């Protein structure tokens, strides 16, 4: 337990360091310096909606297009996220104001949307789609001013400023649909300190937008593609009637403001969460859970086990003491190989692979090396790390398989390399077919799918075989007692020793230690929120590892005391019990937090949730299994066996 406490203290120290330096940037992500009137390119990323969970590329809707459409070369993470970064016709110059400019206006004629295009735009607006743009790799945000004090006196009201990712495509009011056809860009720059004889340079530090809907008749357009916005609130919004053609102007304005924010801190606006305090409550809650478990564990180990071992090791009255207690009675069967040892070792090998990947990704992200300015870096790193961690997964699976008296190591290595990744690939492929049918940018293109298969069979599979070969050749785990030839009869078990009851009991404490963090992770995945508190996440992960290990040891001790030696599979399943609560929480989140009603979005949600639950079960099951295995070997090594 002292070692666990040391881990917690070091994690807390790292968390404090990370929390203070959350805007750390990797060398190589260099700032871009702009001079007066230099072009600042506005690019489009995608359209997203938390109602449909289907991203679309920007030009899937009839927006104004530049003369030449150029797509940015994307990394694996960006492709998997559905990002399709493309140039736009917005002409923005550094520190140069634009009152009102018309897009794609030929001879001052408005844009005409066909009935089919109007129907598509109206459908996207009713589905609550947001548009995501970037300027100098900084995402656009909509400012939301919330009043924290609901006092009737306006002077006492305190503004709580928050930022929404992207901007709404439009809105509905009294069964009518309106499009945001005018964008007021507000860009903030930081003036860099220069020597007297040098020209000032500027850096973009914030990118906001105020979307507006302005009717065609209220916009005055001249021959130079400039326009005049209506004054005050006298204008009416631009309605989109899906039953006919619609005419409108796409317009924008640009306003620049100087800011004290430095370039290195420009992401703080997006990453600042107003509820950081709740994370601290979560950490304190988790630490209390761990201390509670530690107390139970200490009581079992210090009082019960020492008493048991002392009794067992007395030379007199051995037969009487053996009748009194339970766990020594099964010493001749406790290390008897379970059913399906190949599948068990393969799943545990994949669990080790997942554990190594998650630990490294969270640790590297906590140090700031997976900056949000590097889009898709987190997912790309996770994919490649999972492939390369195959050597550790193969090694652990091979050694365990040999310990369990397995002989067909080649088949075992193939099972380890394909069982879990095969399930993940199969589910993702089926879901991808549905996304393809919707023509969403979230569909993984065929060349990317081939590249992933090549990574799987070209990198992961050989590395798993390599690790499995060395693991199988290594000396198996040394079990302290011999296994009897004839299996011992297992007495009838009480109701609370049922496997499902064990899952419910074992899962609630580890889940309770991390469910608050789970809410923020779900919000980041399903509601397009930013998540960057990896310092908290790393600490929660350490607490999860400790609590899973402790609860697993408690459960296996009770099982052996009940003279049930079939602990291998049971402990693996029971240790992953918190995955059941994650599934229950995911259903609760779907019903209460999301507004998904259609079949395909629901299928996507539960398909990806099933993958998350499966991965979480493998992770926590593996942690618990190895903790219990070490515990069982330790206690049977401490008693004298004739």
UniProtKB/TrEMBL annotation:
PANTHER family: TRANSMEMBRANE 9 SUPERFAMILY MEMBER 4 (PTHR10766:SF55), TRANSMEMBRANE 9 SUPERFAMILY PROTEIN (PTHR10766)
Keyword Protein biosynthesis appears in the UniProt entry: no
Compartmental location: Golgi apparatus; Membrane
Residue stretches spanning the membrane: 280-302, 346-370, 376-401, 413-437, 449-472, 500-526, 532-560, 572-591, 603-632
Protein name: Transmembrane 9 superfamily member
Chain's gene name: TM9SF4
Its membrane topology: Multi-pass membrane protein
Keywords in alphabetical order: Golgi apparatus, Membrane, Signal, Transmembrane, Transmembrane helix
């Amino acid at each position: 337990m002292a070692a666990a406490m040391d881990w917690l203290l070091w994690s807390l120290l790292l968390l404090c360091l990370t929390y203070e330096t959350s805007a750390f940037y990797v060398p190589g992500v260099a700032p871009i310096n702009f001079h007066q009137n230099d072009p600042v390119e506005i690019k489009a990323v995608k359209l997203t909606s938390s109602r449909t969970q289907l991203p679309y590329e920007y030009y899937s809707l009839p927006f104004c297009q530049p003369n030449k459409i150029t797509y940015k070369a994307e990394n694996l993470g960006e492709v998997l996220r559905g990002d399709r970064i493309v140039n736009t016709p917005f002409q923005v110059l550094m520190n140069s104001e634009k009152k009102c400019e018309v897009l794609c206006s030929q001879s001052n004629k408005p844009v005409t949307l066909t009935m089919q295009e109007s129907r598509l735009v109206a459908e996207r607006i009713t589905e609550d789609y947001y548009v995501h743009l970037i300027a100098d790799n900084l995402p656009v945000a909509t400012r939301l001013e919330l009043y924290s004090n609901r006092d009737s006196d306006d002077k006492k009201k305190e503004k709580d400023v928050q930022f929404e990712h992207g901007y709404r495509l439009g809105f509905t009011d009294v069964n009518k649909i309106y499009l945001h056809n005018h964008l007021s860009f507000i860009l903030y720059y930081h003036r860099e300190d220069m020597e007297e004889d040098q020209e000032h340079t500027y850096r973009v530090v914030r990118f906001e937008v105020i979307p507006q809907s302005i009717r065609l008749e209220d916009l005055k357009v001249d021959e130079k593609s400039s326009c005049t916005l209506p004054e005050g609130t006298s204008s009416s919004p631009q309605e989109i009637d899906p039953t006919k053609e619609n005419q409108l102007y796409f317009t924008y304005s640009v306003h620049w403001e100087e800011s004290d924010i430095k370039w290195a801190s420009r992401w703080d606006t997006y990453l600042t969460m107003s509820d950081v305090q709740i994370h601290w409550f979560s950490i304190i809650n988790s630490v209390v859970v761990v201390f509670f478990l530690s107390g139970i564990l200490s009581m079992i180990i210090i009082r019960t086990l020492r008493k048991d071992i002392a009794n067992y090791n007395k030379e007199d009255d051995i037969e009487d003491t053996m009748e009194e207690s339970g766990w020594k009675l099964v010493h001749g069967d406790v290390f008897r190989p379970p059913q399906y040892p190949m599948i068990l070792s393969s799943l545990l090998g994949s669990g080790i692979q997942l554990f190594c990947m998650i630990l490294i990704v969270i640790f590297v992200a906590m140090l700031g090396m997976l900056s949000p300015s590097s889009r898709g870096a987190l997912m790309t790193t996770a994919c490649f790390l999972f492939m390369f961690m195959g050597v550790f997964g193969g090694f652990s699976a091979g050694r365990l398989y040999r310990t369990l008296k397995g002989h067909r190591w080649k088949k075992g290595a193939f099972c380890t390399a394909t069982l879990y990744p095969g399930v993940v690939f199969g589910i993702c492929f089926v879901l991808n077919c549905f996304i393809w049918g919707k023509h969403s940018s979230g569909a993984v293109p065929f060349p990317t799918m081939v590249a992933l298969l090549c990574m799987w069979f070209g990198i992961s599979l050989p590395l798993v075989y390599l690790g499995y070969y060395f693991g199988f050749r290594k000396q198996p785990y040394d079990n302290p007692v011999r296994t009897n030839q004839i299996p011992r009869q297992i007495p009838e078990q009480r109701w609370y020793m049922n496997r499902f009851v064990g899952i419910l009991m074992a899962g609630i404490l580890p889940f309770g230690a991390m469910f608050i963090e789970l809410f923020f992770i779900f919000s980041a995945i399903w509601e397009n929120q930013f998540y960057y508190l990896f310092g908290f996440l790393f600490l929660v992960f350490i607490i999860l590892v400790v609590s899973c290990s402790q609860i697993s040891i408690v459960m296996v001790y009770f099982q052996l005391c009940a003279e049930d030696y079939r602990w291998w599979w049971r402990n693996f399943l029971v240790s992953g019990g918190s995955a059941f609560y994650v599934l229950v929480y995911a259903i609760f989140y779907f019903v209460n937090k999301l507004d998904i009603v259609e079949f395909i979005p629901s299928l996507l949600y539960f398909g990806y949730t099933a993958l998350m639950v499966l991965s979480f079960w493998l992770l926590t099951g593996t942690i618990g299994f190895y903790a219990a295995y070490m515990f069982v070997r330790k206690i049977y090594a401490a008693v004298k066996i004739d």
